[in-house]
Amino acid sequence: KIRKRLFDSDASVRRLSVKLMGKLILSLHIDKDRLQDIIEEYLEKLMDNDWKVKFLVMRTLMKILNQDFTKLKDLEPLLSIVIVNLRDDDDDVARSAAELLKILGTYFLSKDKIFYVLLNLLYNEKPRVKELIIWLFGEIGKERSSEIIPIIPKLINLLKECDYRIQQKIIEALISISEN
Predict the structure, then answer these.
(1) What is the separation of C-alpha 85 from the centre of its chain, rounded to a whole number of angstroms?
(2) d(CA 125, CA 118)
């Protein structure tokens, strides 16, 4: 019955059902196939039109990845949806998407894959998304400082941009990388 409420027309009902489903996914030990069906439906809520629903789903996904990442079988569709949410108009959703991408990029994706994705976004997105991507390079650099070395010249070149906030984020990212 809760699963049906994920698609209710009332946003507050969807928010509550997403919260409940998240708690159930985190705590129940059920058949893996059945769990996959539930998680697939749950992931669809990352495309909801309500910011709070998307935000709650991303928070739960971070917990799942930290608790038992085997519950998420295929990370490719998740990666695509997370990238879409980086562009969300809501700052909380966009920031959560960046944090989720940080977890995916640090622990689950190859260095080449995550850097390819991030560099593509860095050069092809609006300043607001660029800020998040630069922050991500700094965060990933904390965990994988030796692997981020080839990216440092690209970040330094971006200091030529006129946007003060971008420059500030680059400096913060470089400091984060250098502290390790």
Answers:
(1) 8
(2) 10
Calpha distance 71→8 (Å, rounded): 25
Q: How far is CA 166 from CA 31, 84, 147, in A?
A: 47, 20, 22
Structure-token pair, residue 144: 């994988």
Q: Does the global pTM surpass 0.90? A: no
Instruction: Report the alpha-carbon distance of residue 175 to residue 138 in Å, rounded.
Output: 8
- How wide is the angle at C-alpha 139 spanned by C-alphas 89 and 96, nearest 5°? 30
- Sequence-distant (6+) residues with CB within 8 A of 142 are 176, 177, 179, 180
- In tens, the pLDDT along 63-104 reads 988 887 777 777 778 889 999 999 999 999 999 999 999 988
User: What tokens does 45 get?
Assistant: 């809520």
Task: List pLDDT tens digits, range 125-170.
Answer: 888 899 999 999 999 888 887 888 899 999 999 998 888 999 999 9
